[in-house]
Structures are given as structure tokens and as C-alpha cells.
Amino acid sequence: MRLLKKKLLLSLILIITIIIPALILAVIAYRGLDKEDLYIEKSLQLSLLSEVNDRILNVLSVIRGVREELAGEMTPDSVNIKESKIIQYLKETKKDSPLIGIPFYISAEGKVVYPDEQGKLSNDEAIFLKYNRDFLENRITIPVYKNIAVIYQKDILENTNQNNKVVLNDTMKVKEENAAPMALDAEETAEEGGAVERSSGMSLSATTKEKKSAVNEDYNIQSVINEFRKSDEVQDKIYSQADTKGQKTLERNVVTFQNKDEPVTRKQRSLIVVESLKFANAIEGREDGFIPRFVDDDFNLLYYRKLPGNKIAGSLLNVEEIKREILALFPDSTNQVRYLTVLDDRGRPLLPVPEDLDVRLPFVSREVSEVLPRWEVAAYLADPGIITVRANNTRTLIWIIMFVLILSLVSGGGILVKTVFSEVDAARKKTSFVTNVTHELKTPLTAIRMFAEMLREGRVATKARKQNYLDIMISETERLSHLINNVLDFSRMDNRKKEYRWELTDLNGFCEKIYLDQKPSLEHSGFTFTFQPSPDACPAVIDRDAVTQVIVNLLSNAEKYSPDKKEISLACEKKEQWIFIHVRDRGKGIPESLAKKIFDPFFRVDDSLTADVKGTGLGLSIARKIITDHKGSVYCSPCTGGGTCFTIKLRAGEKV
User: Fold this and answer.
1) Which of 179, 431, 447, 603 could link 174 by a cystine bridge, Cβ 3.0 to 4.6 Å?
2) What gap in Å lies between CA 347 and CA 344, rounded to an integer?
3) pLDDT tens digits for range 164-180
């Protein structure tokens, strides 16, 4: 009962410390895996957004390079040059620069002097004047595009509590220690992309410091945009503020990224707002810049530069040349994961994508700039099922890891508990062994002492009885020796110190001698004891004393466990290269479930002190160890008609 309580306690500890935590871990893992698609989707989105933002900075470097080139080409060398010379200079500049489409010149009085509608105009120049003359002369307003992150940058940062990260000034520069590395990287990218400073015709070359300042401004604006996008509440507030001032949000060509399980319901709000302004208001406070506009749905891009004396030179730009320079920055637009492209104002991809791809539904996209309204840098998944595949692969891997982990925990805990149980059983068996050995030693000693005292005091009447007492004393002495030898052999075997003396022996004669030695004792106990030799010679290399001990142990067990039908037989048999020694009895028999356990140390079918048969539980374990050392085996099987047969199997005629 006490042992059972200990085992139940250990099992309870195993359940509390290992099984329950393992189940909790499995439940947590299952709940986490249920959202694996969303996690993969978000990770992929953030990765592609980073790439898209980098490409936007590259596009901005192209625009900055174009602006720097035009600033030089639209500025004559002499400040006091005559209007006729300025016009001639613009005509020559057009021939030299592929960026310049139709140059224009506005006098100090605010009149468009060139192209001159009084002179000979080309068809393109006539169309240019038709759509732009009134605007350039401040007679009408047109939609002017502004970046909401620029015009409301202070409000955005105040609402997102980012004042400690960004310094607000005229150019919105990032702190020097944070901005410098980005500036250098962007400068290198700009040089590689072909957006470097042109030398021909330039009079206002940008210095390295000015370049870094411009790059910092681009980076700073992107930082503000990122903060702006983080909060829907801030976006609603800023858009409402812009709408109050009459600034309408531009409509984009793409639909917002949404979870795959959600329906596409709305277009993504643009960062570009539109405000109707006259030309003078649009260029106020700037020395040069771009004015994008749409004419009959065609995208036009005007560049202007203020000259001394309130004069203005500019040009309608060749947008196709700008596209060519932008495309040069996208050499790796396609890989196994995504397609990367630039969408123009009509949502047309500048870089090739599959024909069946719906360009209105990019996986991620970002607007380029107010200079290129409705232009986007967009990324599309090469395989729309990649999220599901990755999520399933991750789930499978995590389930395998979880299974191995839980299996390891449960197996380790089971092994631990089994080991503890074994140790508890071993401790119990050793305690029982000590008790049994004490009892086994005490019984023959008591008998020897009793008969010795009777003989010493002369209380034995007849010579025959005296001889009987002496025989019993000798038998009990042999029993003691046998018991002590078993304990000593077990100790030597446990410490691997038992040594053998190998001899080539005829097992027929060897077994016959044991038979003759044990016959008187067994017959005295009322047993019928027979021996059946093998008709063939049975030579084997054995340690005679050790094998004798094994057979005597088996005969002793047969005697102990045959209380009713007292028949024991010893037989020797040879089959091919093996010799079999059989010890049969007609006793109680051994349950099949215990046929292997009986060879374990200290194991007894009934090891209680009240058992009918006493013993130490060592005989069979010693027998198995000795025969195993002889490269043989020992096993038991039921006898036909009842009882048990123990068989020793040894190899014939070979050295061990």
C-alpha cells in the first residue's frame, strides 16, 4: 500500500509538471498557428514596403537630378542679357537637352514672350500656348498638387508625438547624426541611377552639402509620411483640416492592401491634395520647381526658374525622358517573390508585369511625389498563394517541433518516473532480500544448533537416529554454503569480478555426476529423480563449478515449488551445434506473464515473508548471468501435463 501511494504521487507530479505544461504549450501553439497567415502576410508586406520606399527615394533622386540640370540650363550666363538673347539661349538649350520639350519665357510684366504667338509656331507650341498661356499669365487657376506630409508636417508630428525625433525647420532636416548615413547612401544611389549633376550649360552646380540637404529633405518627408500612416485617427484629423481649407484629396489608381479574407471596399487615400491656384501663387516663395498638370487626361510637367528682374524661364518637359531615367533604377524588377514596377498617372506599368495581373490591386504600393501625381511604386506577389504556402510550411515545421518537444517531455518524464519506480522497486526488493537472507540463514543455523546440542548432551538413543541427525546437519551446512555462494556470486557479478576456469567437458558425464550427487537428498525429500543422457557426445567448454551451481539452483527451485507431485528429471540433448540441458518438474508452474521477469535480480513470484517457499530471488538471475557469460541462454517453458521446464542452451565443442 505504501509503495502504491508513492507511485501515485510520482504519477501526479509527472502530470502536473510535464503533461499539463505540454498540453498548455500545444494549445498556445495551436492558437498562434491559427494566425500564421496574417503574420506571414504582414511580414511580407513590411518587407516589400521597405523595398518600395527605397525605390521611391531613388525616383526622388532622379527628380532632384532633373531639377539640378534644368536649373543650370534655364539660367543664362549673363544677368543683364537681352530678351532676344534669352530666347535664343532657350532655343539652343532645347537642342542640347532631351529633357526640354517646349521652352517658354515670361517677361517682367508677366507676359509669355516665347513661344510668340505672333511668330511662326509649331503645332506643339500652339497647343502649349492654348492650354498654358492663360495660367502662366495669371489669368486663370489650375489644380496644384501638394504633399500633405509637407504642408501639414508640423501638425502631423505634434499629433504623433514625434517632435523628439525630428527637428522642424525650413527644410525639415533630420538631425545630423541620423541623417548623414542616409544622405550618403541616397547620393550614391542617385549617381548610380544616372541622376547626377550634368555639367553642360549649368551655372548653379549643387555642392555636396546642398545635395545632402536635399536628400535629407526627401528622407525626412518619408519619415513624416510613415508616422502619418501609422494612425487612422491622425489621418482623419489632417484630411479634415485640409478639406476645410478647400484642399481636395487626389484619387488614386490603386486599391488599398487588405487582408485576403476581406472584400475590396475602398480606394486608398492619397497623400496628395489638390488646390486651385494661379501661377504666381503656385511659385510663391521658391526660386524654381515643377508644376504638374493634366490636360485632356494627358500628364504634363512644367519646370520654371525665376531670373533676375522678375523674369521667368521654363519648359514643358519631355516626360518620356524622365521615365527612361527612372526605369534605369529598376534593374531587378522581378524575382521569385514579387514584381516591382512604377505605375504612371493612368495606372499603366512602366516595367513589364504579367498580362493577367490586375495592376489596380498591388500587394503594396506607395505614391512617388506631388511632382508626379498619381504615380506609384507598386509591388505584386509573383505567386498569390505564396502566403498560404509559407504559412502551411511554417505550421508543419512548428507542429513537428511541438510534437518532438512534447514527445520528448512526455518520454523523458515517463523514463524518469519509470526509473524512479524501478529504484523504489529495487529498494523494496533489496529490503525483502535482506529479510529473506536473514530468514534463510537463521533456519539452517537453528536446526544445526538444535541437533548439535542433542548430540552433545547424549540425548540421541540409537545409532541410526544419531546418523540421521548428522546427515541433516551436513545437509543444512550445504544449504548454508549454497546460500552464501549465491550471495557472493551475485556480488562478484554485479561488480564484474567473477572469473571462470574454462574446461572442455562432456556434458553427459557432467550432468550424470550432478544427478548422482543430488539424488539422495531429493529422494530423502520424497522426490522421484531421473536422468536421461543424450545418445550423442556432448562436448562443451564450460566452467564446471559455475554450471554446476546453475543446475543445482534449478534443481533446488524444482524441489521448492513442487509440493504435491514430486517428480523431477534431468536430461541432456544435442541438436546440431547446440547442447540443451533440461530440468523438468511437476510443480505449480510459472505464469506466462512472469516467464521473463523471474530472471531479474530479487524477483520472486511471492516475496512476502508469509510465502510458503522461502528464498532470496538470486538463483535464477545468477544462472542467467553465468550462462550468458558462456555465450548461451537459459529460459523456461511450461511442461505438458503441468509443471515447468528450465532449459540451458550451450554451444557444443567451441571455446568461449
Assistant:
1) 179
2) 5
3) 444 444 434 433 333 33
